[in-house]
Amino acid sequence: MKENIIGEYYFEIKRYPLIKFKAIKHFGQEKNDLIDQLNKYLFDNWNSDKKDKFETNENTSEEGLLEFKAYLRVNTYEELIEGTQIILEFLEYTEEWNEQNGKIVDLWQQKEGQFVMPMYNIYLMKDNKPIVPHSALFQTADEIMENAKQTYNSLISE
Questions:
Q1: Model confidence over 66-77: pLDDT tens digits?
Q2: How far is Cα 106 from Cα 127, in angstroms, rounded to an integer?
């Protein structure tokens, strides 16, 4: 897009046109709801009875962008471990879906066992504070579990 173009743009993913998203450009600033649309689509289509354990929050911003979140409430360390395992199952589903649908997210640097789907809006919640186990691309299941444990421990030590 040119720097001086202002407006709203609507897109669909060429390889998977069921996922549509909106982008807004205002001078040099750009916003879009691609990750939220992708997260919502994949979460809604995840065929797991564990999905019922999540609370979801879906809003539309003032600009008309989707804001989607799904989270599991945890109170104990055991619930943290169980919740992180459920999130890992969801991440495995998203990676399989990505592979089966022509690698919509295709990052050549991905190594075996790493998760690359951007699922940052799927997380745990302790005392109304988010714990985002999958907080970066290229994390393994062990790194995601360790990240969840460290975040949890820092929250309970506050």
A1: 999 999 999 999
A2: 36
